[in-house]
Amino acid sequence: MNSPAEDILQNIISIDKNNTTAVYVQIAQHIINAVQRGYFSVGTLLPGTRSLSNLLKIHRNTAVAVYDELASQGWVEIVPNKGTFVLNPIRQKPIVGNFNELKNEEYPTKTGFNFYESVHLASPYEKVETTYTFNDGQTDIRLHTDKQYNRWYNAALKRTSIIKKWNTFLFDQSSFLNTQLCNYLNATRNLHIAPKNLLTTRSTEMNLYLVAQLLLKPNDVVLVGTLSNFAVNMIFHQAKANIKTIPVDENGLDVSFIKKNFTKNSVRCVYCTPQRHYPTTSSLSAQRRLQLVQLAKEYGFAIIEDDFDFDFQFDATPMPPMASADTNGLIIYLGKVGQALFPAFETGFIVAPVNLITEVKNYYRMIDPQGDLIKEQILAEVIHEGEMHRQVKKKILLYKARRDAMCSALKNTFGDLISFNKPNGGLALFIQFNKPISLVKLSEQISKYNVTLPKHLLYQTKNMCGIRLGFGHLNIDEINHTIEMLKKAYDDLDP
To answer: What is the CA 431 to chain-centroid distance, rounded?
Structure first.
């Protein structure tokens, strides 16, 4: 005859073989539910693992896993040579000891001490509550299949090298990822670097933040484009740099402006995105690139070259980075790889002379001593097996079609009301309204059509009325729809 506990278990537990949830987890969830509903009182002795396996027709190891799972969550206590007993699932409030008189029902809303607030670090990002939204050029997460990435993760977890590296610093200059990424950058960007010239990080923003810690002191002059990336400016502001702007035209930064308005040793660094200027997407001409490098040598400033979307080149062979021809150690080259993969695999990198990389590593050790071992292993294998190259080639064809669809939709819908240049790459374009309107009002109006136009994509000055529109995350039907809604919002303003 079964015990009362066995009768209850037999009646309440059902196992779904088609469920992706592990069998031992399913059983544990049923038992937890039974305890919550009062079927088992505190102290109830549950059947032994052998009895449970016979009762439910499962392997004894599965029964052991069930009780281990329950014990790890605090629902049962396993007493050696006695059995498994149900515990009280209600967690008691901790005893504060002699501090009971200080007890407060509400947690404080403000600190009892002063700290340094950074107004310029307030996030400009908005909560999206509409079906559609524009962004500044992100990839489409819907293009990725979970089966492929599950396979990569499972393979990486089985590597014995992962276990050896765990809990150690990951800054071996001959590491698998550094070696593979070094080969990839040399092949795709015409660089001539060794692993010792390379550091991988979690993002391009982290790249710049680390570099800024080494380069900048308060009031150092940093030159950026008249229109620039807000996140970049936030990092320079945080470093207390003195940010000055350089005019930007269809050929990128106006390098001659530097020589006319600044003197030798008065500029600490120049930040630029030569491949496609952010946000306008105009490329820095070959002549201006040469002028900039020559001026850096003459004036004694560093060049931070940010190549954030190099892999997405549609119409022609991309111009090699300025860093590929740097013989004087003047350029710090930043970028990221893995954009053609699942977003979790995007990885930032810094390329620079060895002495700078060594110092950057010291900073990086403090904030991220372990890194992401699994991601690094997978990314290295993806590059080594040629999968990175294949994924980039496939995505280029798709995103090129989306770029063309966006350009066609804008031209057909707005006509002469706007002007823009078709970018030769990247995942965004920049439009300018030929007749100035209130872009803030446009952003507010389009939300009524279930589309979000984030305010950090708006560029409005006395001489500028433009928007950076990303197209990579939208399919062609979504592109046509959102542009149509943008036109409706524009017409509502009656410019």
So the answer is: 25
C-alpha distances in angstroms, 183 versus 178, 179, 350, 391? 9, 6, 14, 17
What's the average model confidence in pLDDT over 438-456?
95
Phi, psi of 431 (to 5 degrees): -110, 145
Domain with CATH 3.40.640.10 in the chain: 145-385
Cis link prior to 279 (omega < 30° from 0)?
A: yes
Q: Give the confidence band of 263 by pLDDT, cuts at 50, 70, 90.
A: very high
Q: How confident is the model at residue 92 (pLDDT cuts 50, 70, 90)?
A: very low
Task: Please state which CATH class domain 132-139+395-492 belongs to.
Answer: alpha beta
CB 67 within 8 A of CB 79: no
CATH of domain 145-385: 3.40.640.10
Question: What residue spans in the chain does CATH classification 3.90.1150.10 cover?
Answer: 132-139+395-492
In angstroms, rounded to a whole number, what is the distance separating the alpha carbons of residues 124 and 230? 9
Render pLDDT for 390-445 as a digit per residue (tens, 0 to 9). 999 999 999 999 999 999 999 999 999 999 999 999 999 999 999 999 999 999 99
Is residue 98 over pLDDT 80? no
Interval 180-227: pLDDT, tens:
999 999 999 999 999 999 999 988 899 999 999 999 999 999 999 998
Average pLDDT over residues 276-287: 94
Burial of 270 (0-12, 13-18, 19+ CB in 10 A): buried
3-state secondary structure the chain: CCCHHHHHHHHHCCCCCCCCCCHHHHHHHHHHHHHHCCCCCCCCEECCHHHHHHHHCCCHHHHHHHHHHHHHCCCEEEECCCEEEECCCCCCCCCCHHHHHHCCCCCCCCCCCCCCCCHHHCCCCCCCCCCEECCCCCCCHHHCCHHHHHHHHHHHHCCHHHHHHCCCCCCCCCCHHHHHHHHHHHHHHCCCCCHHHEEEECCHHHHHHHHHHHHCCCCCEEEEECCCCHHHHHHHHHCCCEEEEECEECCEECCHHHHHHCCCCCCCEEEECCCCCCCCCCCCCHHHHHHHHHHHHHHCCEEEEEECCCCCECCCCCCCCHHHHCCCCCEEEEEEECCCCCHHHCEEEEECCHHHHHHHHHHHHHHCCCCCHHHHHHHHHHHHCCHHHHHHHHHHHHHHHHHHHHHHHHHHHHHHHEEECCCCECCEEEEEECCCCCHHHHHHHHHHHCEECCHHHEEECCCCEEEEEECCCCCHHHHHHHHHHHHHHHHHCCC
CB-CB contact of 299 with 264 (8 Å): yes
**Whether pTM exceeds 0.70:** yes
Domain spanning 4-86 has what CATH number? 1.10.10.10
